[in-house]
Amino acid sequence: MSVNSAKEMLVVAATRGFAVGAFNITNIIQMEAVIEAAVARRAPVIIQTSVTPTKFLRPEVIAAAFRAVAESSPVPACLHLDHCDDLALCKRCADAGYTNIMFDGSKFDFDENVRLTREVVDYCHGLGDITVEGELGTVTGVEDQVRVAESEAELCDPARSLEFVERSGVDLFAPAIGTAHGVYLTENPKIDFERFEKINKIVNGQRVIAPLIVHGGTGLKPEVVRRLVALGGAKFNVSTDLKYALIDATYEYISTHRNEYNPGKIDIAAKRAVMERVNYWIDMLGCEGKAELAGGDRCGTAASQNGAAASA
Ligand SMILES: [Zn+2]
Known about the structure:
53% of the residues lie in helices and 15% in strands. It is an alpha/beta fold. It has a single domain (6-311), classed as TIM Barrel. The strands form 2 sheets. It has an 8-stranded parallel sheet, sandwiched between helices. The longest helix is centred in the last third of the chain and has 23 residues, at 263-285. The two termini are 19 Å apart. Residues 299-312 have low confidence and may be disordered. The site of zinc ion has 6 residues, from loops.
């Protein structure tokens, strides 16, 4: 059994100086690719779905597929709902078997964000080991349903970050620090490292209460990613990168095999391309070989059983 609570995994990451990749997927091929790459590198991993593919594929189908893939894998894995501002969908995903829910109340004022996030936290914690991510400030760009103009962007106020975490009860905290969704329009986006460091000290200075999450991983330079990991970033969200890998590989394969009608071969090409990108992120985040560490006893048991089976 290697399906884990995201908080458990990310507290270890935050205290041991690495981060876990959280990859947005839109189909089963991508899900398999992400988990297979993580298994090959013995890295903990998070599968995410944003709202539109979650509704399209249905939470129950995604959760069932995830469990089938993840439970037999010797690395700790989570299933996360990304950027949802719909309470009913948050609850439906929690009921269906998602291990982690992000309620994105960043478009609301502070108190309303706290109130709605708290409702999701109470529901998810009531069901057991389901953890919740909240966001304060606004991450710019395009993320599925959530569209924010850059001019509307506001960064997370460090002075209110601990109050947000304590009052909402979130397990994971996503402060807006200047990263963006989609593709960065400038070569050097202005990332507020000082703000991020300050927030981490305020929230997690004594002990890790709510590991920090970095949104908009795609396109960040390696030195930016490594600096954010060093400053306490425990989960990096990667979405656009995998979309490009999937679509470019599919297009390229079909273009060069125009008379071949074999969907399985297209899937293999797409899967390879996605695995390549996951490998790139595992290198950058420093999570290779961290499966046992991040998975606790549950993963240790599954890992040694699978390891024994694999070497037998
Ligand atoms: Zn995001």
